[in-house]
Amino acid sequence: MSNAKLYASSGEFKSEVELPAEFFGIEPNEIAIYLAVKAILNNRRQGSAHSKSKSEISGGTRKPWKQKGTGNARAGQNTSPIWVRGNKAHGPKKRKYFEKVNKKVKRLAFRSALSSRAKDSCIGLFENFDFSAPKTKEFLTMVGKAGFEQKNVLFLATPEERNLIRSLSNVPWARWAWVKDVNTYDVMRARHILMSQEALKLLTGGLR
Questions:
Q1: What's the structural domain count of the chain?
Q2: What is the distance between the alpha carbons of residues 160 and 49, in angstroms, rounded to a whole number?
Q3: Beta pairing partners, 194
Q4: Are residues 88 and 102 in the same domain?
Q5: Considering the entire predicted model, what is its pTM?
Q6: pLDDT digits 0-9 by tens, 42-91
């Protein structure tokens, strides 16, 4: 069983609530987390690095000088990798870094990440994020009262909480993600996961 602290919209502590065991109470599977995070990071790679081979760079294929008798080292063409302006030996080529992870492994990794954060008491709930307008000062006051200031925080937001997103946009140690889009890497990258009670319902309401 995992619990999380519940805060008012002002940031004041109210009580502790029990988190759904299906998402926050399983034994974390480190292998699944590793596979999911590795796939996420590899799938973000562009894979466009490309170095030219001998056939692609400018230069001739004629032998620069005869094999013997000149005192120079043997040379076959001026596009050799050991020549200035020559090609790159064993350089990078365009490739795809795409990795596929099975759905069951993805789900297990995501729930393992949430359970790991819950186990470390790093999940925080708010009654709501009541921002009538985007105000960074109000955001900092709320987070400061709750004790999460300067602590690498990830907010899980719903579409109705756009003022929260705009309020934290200039705060370097706070990030956000849509509830429906958050992944294992986002959860593991952050130290604390904060969300409203409405966001928790969306998270555990069959979206995963």
A1: 2
A2: 41
A3: 124, 155
A4: no
A5: 0.83
A6: 999 999 999 998 888 888 888 999 999 999 999 988 898 988 888 999 99
